[in-house]
Amino acid sequence: xxxxxxxxxxxxxxxxxxxxxxxxxxxxxxxxxxxxxxxxxxxxxxxxxxxxxxxxxxxxxxxxxxxxxxxxxxxxxxxxxxxxxxxxxxxxxxxxxxxxxx
Length: 102
Fold this sequence. Notes:
Blueprint lengths: L1 E2 H4 L2 E6 L4 E7 L3 H9 L5 H8 L7 E5 L4 E7 L25 E2 L1
Antiparallel strand pairs: 1-6, 2-3, 3-5, 4-5
Pfam family, one: DUF4387
Protein name: DUF4387 domain-containing protein
InterPro entries: DUF4387 (IPR025496)
C-alpha cells in the first residue's frame, strides 16, 4: 500500500462557499487516477468518517479526462464562525495525505 500523498501529484482544498469544502486530488496519469477512484479509503463513507460529516452529504466527481477526483462536503462550522478553524479551507486536505491507498 502507498499513502495518497505519494500516489497523487497534487492535493488541494478550498472553500466552496460558506457551507461547503472542496478537495481536488490531481494525478499524473490514468493508472494513478483509477487507483484513487477505486480505493475504499476515499469512498464517501471513509471521507465522511475522516471529516466528521454525514456520508450522504459527501459528493464525488471523478474527472477522468484530466485525472482529477473532486470531492465536496459540508463544513462542520460555517465559514467565519468563531469556531471555524480554517476560514479558507486551505488545510482540509492534510488528513488525506497519510490515507493508505490500495
